[in-house]
């Protein structure tokens, strides 16, 4: 055959108006979140610059500068959020495993609905519950911890007579982030490849051993993502912390005393109505610090998740 075949031309599908509208709207929506994030960051940076060079008298502290003022607030924010995550994560994983692999279908659907409903409760309701119900309820437990475990530094010191301590705040925050972590972990565990679960059971594994070898390794990135979302909620919570905690701008690891480190968000909420001039810039600067902390926590979580390859398999 002397004549060569003509090269095949690529056939391009004609773009329909609906496809173009949908593609453009998705690009606009994705770009909009970046624009909003950048606008918030620029606003915080611009308004925070005067606070970085403010004197101790302008800030309202005895000595030091802005970083001396914000240091205890950063500590209180991280300390309360870490305690809440430490309490909420194991419980959330246990509830998610019970719903996805142990509970009957009707019980699992009812419990899942209750967990999702708990996420819709306003934070002010959690704050009122923390003051009126939880704080008086935990006082006997705090006395017992101080009496029997007072040798441990976290439980030493003079026990608060009101129960409004950093540990009470951590319990409230743990209840608040529990539905978020549980809902994400539940959906991740339900996505475990069925072949992996059946293979583990066929090799003689018990249900718990199957969960250890198949479900938890597959769901590890989801667990990390859920934990970081819950941590972000705890870091930025305002009303519940401001209502429950008896705040002090200090660094203290004591969990049961009346003097407790406050958080950045609660400090802004309590002091912003009376702030003026440089005081507003100082509070906005602390908000910028919280913005950076939250961004860094989520960035680290994303790096950890991306370093682990996805589990292979089919449902």
From TrEMBL:
UniProt subcellular location: Cell membrane
Native organism taxonomy: Bacteria, Bacillati, Actinomycetota, Actinomycetes, Micrococcales
Pfam family, one: BPD_transp_1
Membrane topology summary: Multi-pass membrane protein
Highest taxon of the lineage: Bacteria
Broad class of where this protein is predominantly found: membrane
GO MF assignments: phosphate transmembrane transporter activity
Regions crossing the membrane: 21-46, 66-99, 111-131, 165-185, 238-258, 278-301
Gene from which this protein is expressed: pstC
Function of the molecule: Part of the binding-protein-dependent transport system for phosphate; probably responsible for the translocation of the substrate across the membrane.
Record keywords, A-Z: Cell membrane, Membrane, Phosphate transport, Transmembrane, Transmembrane helix, Transport
Entry GO terms, CC: plasma membrane
Organism the protein comes from: Amnibacterium flavum
GO term, biological process aspect, one: phosphate ion transport
PROSITE patterns recorded: ABC_TM1
Record carries keyword Transferase: no
Domain ABC transmembrane type-1: 74-301
Family: Belongs to the binding-protein-dependent transport system permease family. CysTW subfamily.
The protein's name: Phosphate transport system permease protein
């Amino acid at each position: 055959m002397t004549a060569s075949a003509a090269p095949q031309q690529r056939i391009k599908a004609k773009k329909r108006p609906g496809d173009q509208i949908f593609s453009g709207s998705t690009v606009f929506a994705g770009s909009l979140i970046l624009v909003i994030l950048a606008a918030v960051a620029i606003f915080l940076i611009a308004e925070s610059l005067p606070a970085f060079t403010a004197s101790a008298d302008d800030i309202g502290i005895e000595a030091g500068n802005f970083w001396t003022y914000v240091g205890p607030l950063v500590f209180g924010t991280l300390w309360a959020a870490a305690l809440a995550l430490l309490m909420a994560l194991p419980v959330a994983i246990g509830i998610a495993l019970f719903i996805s692999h142990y509970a009957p279908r009707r019980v699992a659907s009812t419990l899942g609905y209750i967990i999702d409903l708990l996420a819709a409760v306003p934070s002010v309701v959690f704050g009122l519950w923390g003051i009126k119900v939880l704080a008086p309820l935990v006082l006997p437990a705090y006395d017992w911890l101080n009496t029997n475990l007072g040798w441990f530094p976290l439980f030493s010191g003079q026990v608060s007579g009101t129960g409004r301590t950093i540990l009470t705040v951590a319990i409230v925050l743990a209840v608040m982030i529990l539905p978020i972590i549980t809902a994400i972990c539940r959906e991740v565990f339900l996505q475990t490849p069925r072949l992996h679960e059946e293979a583990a059971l066929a090799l003689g594994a018990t249900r718990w051993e199957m969960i250890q070898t198949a479900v938890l390794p597959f769901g590890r990135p989801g667990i990390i993502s859920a934990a970081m979302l819950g941590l972000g909620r705890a870091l930025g919570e305002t009303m519940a912390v401001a209502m429950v905690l008896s705040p002090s701008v200090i660094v203290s690891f004591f969990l049961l005393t009346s003097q407790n480190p406050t958080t950045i968000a609660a400090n802004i909420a309590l002091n912003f109505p009376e702030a003026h001039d440089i005081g507003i810039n100082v509070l906005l600067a602390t908000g910028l610090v919280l913005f950076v902390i939250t961004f860094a926590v989520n960035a680290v979580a994303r790096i950890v998740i991306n370093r682990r390859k996805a589990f292979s398999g089919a449902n």
